Records
---
Amino acid sequence: MKIKNLLDQSKQKLQGYSPTPDLDSEILLSSILEKNREFLFSHPDLAVSKKDSQKFNQLIIERIKQEPIAYIVGEKNFYRRTFTVNSATLIPRPETELIIEKVLEYYHREIYLSKNTFLIDIGTGSGCIVISLIKELQKTQSNFSALKAVGTDLSAKALVIARKNSKKFETKNQINFLEGNLLEPTLKKYPAQPAPEEKSLKDSQLIITANLPYLSQDIYKNCPKSVLQFEPQKALLADKNGLGLYIELLNQIKTNHLDQLAWNIYLIFEISPEQKELVEKEFKKIFPNIQMRFSQDFAQKYRFIEIFFK
Ligand SMILES: C[S@@+](CC[C@H](N)C(=O)[O-])C[C@H]1O[C@@H](n2cnc3c(N)ncnc32)[C@H](O)[C@@H]1O
């Protein structure tokens, strides 16, 4: 069958099942043919083999069952790069790209190149945040050896994908991926009092990025079927109105005295917009003197909090 006929058919089949039947059909056929979408438009009369047509129709069935396109094709764009994803990782969201922008702004404004800098991405998933940051900093940073980066996750399966992405983007030598709860694996690997030649969190500039699960039970249960059925619940849902993991993370910083040991700390978290007031209240209970700056996503909803310790 010709490309144009296959596409016409699949667009019809996806009507009512996907908000974007044309785009979905084009992405799925492109992935089967291993060509870009422009190729489909410029070769409408090209015949697709029976085997490829069958594979394509199978993908359309998966899409009708609401499987997200990113999982079907195994990749998702994030900050101008294509990351591998699978059902163990969250699909990176466009708004999370704003974390990259904000960290880069902070970095260029506040980082002292003479000091060791530790970048810690907690709940790294596909590794999209930490890998994007390292790639962007590589473009501008002259003293790159002073920068150490860590990506951590509770999910060993997600870390397999993060390491795969790190290899693909050639950041393997810059980023250590560690398994464990929040800051625990980092504190174990880089204790505050290390052997003299090792890098330490002590006296370092710390940048901690976290897009941890932050949905409350009420918000989670109203998510679309494609999220509930296909994305890992452990990547999305948290207790204490969605703030449980962020509260635990701040408590880890406090009990390990990182706020006093580090030379400087900057934190940025992605949150759910309705949590703003609760975040202000709960975070101040742990660290009464921090400065908090909230900022909005593309839909003008409060989505990020930056925390400054001095
Ligand atoms: C919302 S996803 C974010 C993934 C990725 N950073 C992104 O922005 O696409 C949250 C991630 O946190 C991980 N996670 C959940 N609980 C955790 C914990 N206690 N410690 C470390 N990681 C955790 C999940 O496995 C998941 O990969």
---
Amino acid sequence: MAGMTDLTSQYSPSPETASSAADQLEQPPLRLTVIAASVRKERLSRVLAEWAAGRASGIADVDLIDLAECELPDDEHLVPGGGPRSAIADRIERADGYVIVTPEYNHSYPAGLKRAIDWHYGEWMFKAATVLSYGVHGGLLATEHLRGVFAELHVVTTRRAVGLRAPWNDIGDDGFTPPPGTGEAFDGALRELAWWASTLHTARRDRPFQR
Ligand SMILES: Cc1cc2nc3c(=O)[nH]c(=O)nc-3n(C[C@H](O)[C@H](O)[C@H](O)COP(=O)(O)O)c2cc1C
């Protein structure tokens, strides 16, 4: 598909199976938090995060955290397992799942996102995440680095992840106009995210993991 890398394969669970399993769980509406990960003045993450949030609002209550608008405490106060409670800790804690909208910087994800991850600990735990990455070739190296970091925090990442190739070509006055198939591919990742987020919500409530 032009402009996009989609990792979906024929071996994935069908969307119908994933969504009906989530629907059958009796629990409050799913809460997803979209995180815009880059903080440059001329960044693209905000407009792409808004597009992702619009898409996710079809299946969940959505919050959008723009890291460019969040001030974290100084790193000199950071200790293993986080540190003093940050201004966004409650919002990270409230979420059942996350959509990380991140560019690839030097074959990984931006330092600002790593700081936001490191400044929180229990807030992330036993949740789910998907990644909407972007870059010259889709930014998938950022996604793969995030998988390893999130595993340390007991965050499950979805198998499906969408990478946008050179999305700057698809952004104009009306925001992001995705290439054909992009929205559908992202919806597939969101369905997986919803399944994991619902399942883990129930597990956290009914049988919390004894660390
Ligand atoms: C510091 C820096 C490093 C970058 N490294 C990569 C890279 O490794 N791979 C890539 O595809 N694009 C790379 N780019 C290009 C970005 O994909 C592109 O500038 C994108 O718009 C950055 O996202 P942002 O606008 O939200 O900051 C890099 C950009 C910056 C600013």
